[in-house]
Each structure stands twice: as C-alpha cells, then as structure tokens.
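## retry 2 of 3
previous attempt timed out at serialization; input unchanged, resubmitting
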Amino acid sequence: MEKLKIILTLVLTILFLSCSSQTANEKKEFPDYFPRIDGKDMIDSFLCKWYSEQLFALKEPILCNQRDKNKVVYRLTVLRTFANPYSIRVENTGTEVTLCWKECDGSGGYEPGNLIEDKKIRLSIEDWTEIEKYIDEINFWNLPIEDNSYDSPPDGTTGLIEGFNYGKYHIITHWNPEKVDISRLFQFLVSKTDIDYKKQRD
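## retry succeeded, writing output
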C-alpha cells in the first residue's frame, strides 16, 4: 500500500511539472520596443510591457533600433480599452513612401489577440509633405515623452506616436488634447486606410 502511494505521488509530481513546463513554454515572450537612455527606462516599465506586447501582436518592427539611417518612419498606435488595437506606419525611404496598417482582434486595454489585418499601400510625395506638416504642427520632436498634466485621455484611448528620422528616435505616449491637437494627423492617416476607428467590440 505504501509503495502504491509513493508511485502515485511520483506520477502526480511528474504530471504537475510537465504541465507547468508546457504552460511556461506556451507563454508568449516579446521584446522591449523602447530603448533605455543613460541606463534608465525611456518609459515606465508597466507601460513598456503593455505597449510592447500590443506592438508584438501587431507584428510591428522595433523602430528605436532601425539600422537604415536613410529612412524616416512615423507610427501611430491606438489602444482603445474595449476595441481592437491597431497601428498605422508610414515610411519614406527616399525613393518610395509607403503606408502600412495592422489590426488585432483583441482589446487595446487587455489581451491584443491575433493579427486580422495587414495592408500596405504607396503614398504620394504630396501625402508625405502633408504628414510632415502635421508632425511639425504638433512640434513632435520637442514634445515630452509623457504629459502628466492631466489624468488620462477622456475617451479611455491610449495612443503612441513614434518617429525615426535618420537615426534619431522619439516617442510620445500620452497627449493632452488641450495642449497638443493630433486630430489632423490622426484623421489624415486613418483616411488612407479602411480602419473603422469608431467601431467598438461587443
């Protein structure tokens, strides 16, 4: 009887360790999408994890370590608490301007889910000039990474705007609509896609 107990204990232990190992292996790992500056995190560690997981699910590249110094990139990532997360990325290589948008089927405030849309189009030089105009309008490159002068965006939406300009990287993670009006940039980029940004999940 005692021998049977020992065998059962061993079997249950092996099963537990096997399940634990499987769960650990199934856990999705993702890289940090944001750099450290002078040994310090560029953004809060919680936000870094949240944003990085969303961007990883969107299968987006890490902009801060781009190797092509001749490229200019802007990316808008929109994370709505109860709606699908999406990103819009525009790139100018000097010879071509492209716009790529992606969407996942999860929630921007929770699990991102799986990639359900990944589209890409070419833009004109006129389009690029318009985008640069809106970037200059908000003084993007001189804005602080975070604006802590208000509690949170009023509609529960969190957004990131990233820029990579000939080797220089910058990000703003929150914006105060009373100080920084990104609506024209946002509307212009969305107008080039088929994203229904007003749609909420059931």
